[in-house]
C-alpha cells in the first residue's frame, strides 16, 4: 500500500512539473531547489554560445528553457558562473543582456555577455586614433564604449551615405547608394563610343528612371531595354558627355574632402548591410594610407592597423540553411586586397571565437562573477557549449591546449600586444561540448561536421588559423544545451 501511495505521489509531482512553464521553474521551487538549500561552491563554469544554442533568430530554443531550469535556483540566481560568449556584434551589450533575460526567464547582467568585439577595449594604443568603423546596428555606440576617441563611420540618410566624424561631427562627404528595400527597377546601359561602359538607372514608385552615376568620355548612351512602366523611353537615345577620370564608377562615387585629417586605422565590428559599399570604402582607406580624398600612386605596405572581430564564415538563424557571417566578408576583403596589391592583408588583432584572447577575457569574467557571488573555491574547469565546430569547438580546444601548455610554462603570451596583464589563471581545463541545434547537425548532410573517420571536412576557419583536425573534435556531442548541462552536472556530481 505504501508503495502504491508513493507511486501516485511521484506521478502527481511529475504532472505538476509539466504544468509549470519550463522557463520559470528555476525561479520557483518547481524543480525542487528549495530556498536555503546548501550547495557546495562551484568549481566549474559555463561558456555558452547564443545563436544556435539558446536561440534561433529571435526565437528561444525550448531546450534552453529546460537548461536554465536546472541552472537557476529558487532565488532566481545562477547556481554556477555563466558567461554568454557570442560572435555576434551588431547589438549593444546591455541590449543583448535584456534580450536574454526576457527569453530565458532569469536575470542576465551586461557583464555576463561577451560580444565578438568586446576584447577591443584591451587595445588601448589605438584608443586615441581616428578609426574607420564598419558593421551594422549600433556600431558607433559600441566603438565609443572601448573607447576610441575619433570615429569615422558610414551613416545612411535617405538614399545618400554620409561619412561622419565622431566627436567633431564633421561631414566628410556623401555617396549615392541604391535603396534595395524599395521597389527598384534596374536598367543596364551601354556606350557606343569610344568603348563599352555601363551604369545603373533606378526607378522607384513607378516614376521615370533617373541616372545614379555615370563617369565616361564623350559616349553616346542608349537604352538597351525598356522600363516596364514607360514604353516611351525605349526610343530615346541619350548622349552624355562628361570628363574622363580614368574609372567608371558603377554604384557610387565618394566625394571626399581633401582637407579631412588622415584616417589612422580600421575597425571591422561585423558584417555590414551593403557589402560592396563598405568593401570599396575600406579599400580606399587602406590603399591611400588613410587619405582617400588625396589618393596615392602606390599603396603603402604595411598598411594601416586593422582590428577585426567575428571570424565566423557561417552562422545559423531561423532559416534552414546557414547564413554568411563576418568571416565571409573578411574573406572578400582579403581576396580583393591580395588581388590589387599582391600582398596579404594583415590584422593587428582578431577577436571573437576561436581567438584565445576571447577565451582569456571570458575566463576573467567567470572569475569576477564567482567573486561577486562569494564563491571562495577557485574555478578549475570551464565547459564551452556551442553549435559551430570551427568557432566553438576549435576555440575551446585551442584554449584548453593553451592551458595545458601554460602548466608547463610553454605557452606563448596571448595578450593583446602587451596591453592586458591577466591574473594568474586557476583554470585547468576547457571542455568543448557540441550541440546539434545550430550550424552542426548530425542528421543533415553537408553540415559543418567534425571528421569522424571519413574524409576531412572543408576548413571553414579564418586564414590566420591553421587547420588542425584534432582541434575540431568536440569532447562531447549532445542533442541540445539541456543535455549539455545534464552531462556537466553528472560529471561534477551536482543535482539537476
Automatic annotation (TrEMBL):
It holds the Pfam family Hydrolase_6. GO terms for biological process: glycerophospholipid biosynthetic process. It comes from the Eukaryota. GO terms for cellular component: mitochondrion. This is Cat eye syndrome critical region protein 5 isoform X1. The gene is Hdhd5.
Amino acid at each position: 500500500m505504501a508503495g502504491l501511495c508513493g507511486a501516485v505521489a511521484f506521478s502527481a509531482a511529475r504532472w505538476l512539473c509539466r504544468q509549470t512553464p519550463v522557463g520559470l521553474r528555476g525561479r520557483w521551487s518547481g524543480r525542487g531547489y528549495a530556498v536555503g538549500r546548501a550547495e557546495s561552491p562551484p568549481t566549474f563554469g559555463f561558456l555558452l554560445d547564443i545563436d544556435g544554442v539558446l536561440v534561433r533568430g529571435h526565437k528561444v530554443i525550448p531546450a534552453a528553457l529546460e537548461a536554465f531550469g536546472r541552472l537557476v535556483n529558487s532565488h532566481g540566481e545562477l547556481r554556477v558562473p555563466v558567461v554568454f560568449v557570442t560572435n555576434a556584434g551588431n547589438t549593444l551589450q546591455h541590449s543583448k543582456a535584456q534580450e536574454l533575460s526576457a527569453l530565458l526567464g532569469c536575470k542576465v547582467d551586461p557583464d555576463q555577455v561577451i560580444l565578438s568585439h568586446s576584447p577591443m577595449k584591451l587595445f588601448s594604443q589605438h584608443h586615441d586614433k581616428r578609426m574607420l568603423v564598419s558593421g551594422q546596428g549600433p556600431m558607433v555606440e559600441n566603438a565609443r564604449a572601448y573607447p576610441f576617441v575619433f570615429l569615422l563611420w558610414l551613416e545612411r540618410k535617405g538614399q545618400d551615405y554620409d561619412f561622419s566624424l565622431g566627436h567633431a561631427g564633421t561631414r566628410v562627404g556623401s555617396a549615392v547608394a541604391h535603396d534595395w528595400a524599395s521597389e527598384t527597377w534596374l536598367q543596364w546601359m551601354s556606350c557606343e563610343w569610344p568603348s563599352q561602359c555601363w551604369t545603373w538607372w533606378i526607378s522607384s514608385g513607378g516614376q521615370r528612371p533617373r541616372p545614379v552615376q555615370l563617369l565616361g568620355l564623350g559616349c553616346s548612351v542608349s537604352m538597351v531595354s525598356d522600363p516596364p512602366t514607360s514604353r516611351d523611353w525605349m526610343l530615346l537615345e541619350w548622349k552624355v558627355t562628361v570628363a574622363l577620370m580614368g574609372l567608371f564608377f558603377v554604384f557610387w562615387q565618394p566625394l571626399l574632402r581633401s582637407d579631412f585629417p588622415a584616417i589612422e586605422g580600421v575597425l571591422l565590428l561585423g558584417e555590414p548591410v551593403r557589402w560592396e559599399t563598405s568593401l570599396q570604402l575600406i579599400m580606399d582607406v587602406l590603399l591611400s594610407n588613410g587619405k582617400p580624398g588625396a589618393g596615392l600612386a602606390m599603396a603603402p605596405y604595411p598598411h594601416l592597423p586593422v582590428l577585426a572581430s567575428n571570424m565566423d564564415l557561417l552562422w545559423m538563424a531561423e532559416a534552414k540553411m546557414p547564413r554568411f557571417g563576418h568571416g565571409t566578408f573578411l574573406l572578400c576583403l582579403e581576396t580583393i586586397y591580395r588581388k590589387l596589391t599582391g600582398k596579404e592583408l594583415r590584422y593587428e588583432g582578431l577577436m571573437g571565437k576561436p581567438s584565445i584572447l576571447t577565451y582569456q577575457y571570458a575566463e576573467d569574467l567567470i572569475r569576477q562573477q564567482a567573486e561577486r557571488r562569494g564563491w571562495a573555491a577557485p574555478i578549475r574547469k570551464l565547459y564551452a557549449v556551442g553549435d559551430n565546430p570551427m568557432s566553438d569547438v576549435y576555440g575551446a580546444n585551442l584554449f584548453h591546449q593553451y592551458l595545458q601548455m601554460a602548466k608547463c610554462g610553454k605557452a606563448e603570451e596571448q595578450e593583446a600586444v602587451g596591453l592586458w596583464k591577466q591574473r594568474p589563471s586557476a583554470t585547468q581545463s576547457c571542455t568543448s561540448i557540441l550541440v546539434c541545434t545550430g550550424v552542426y547537425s548530425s542528421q543533415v548532410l553537408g553540415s559543418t561536421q567534425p571528421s569522424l573517420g571519413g574524409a576531412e571536412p572543408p576548413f571553414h576557419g579564418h586564414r590566420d588559423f591553421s587547420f588542425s583536425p584534432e582541434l575540431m573534435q568536440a569532447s562531447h556531442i549532445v542533442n541540445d544545451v539541456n543535455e549539455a548541462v545534464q552531462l556537466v552536472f553528472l560529471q561534477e556530481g551536482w543535482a539537476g
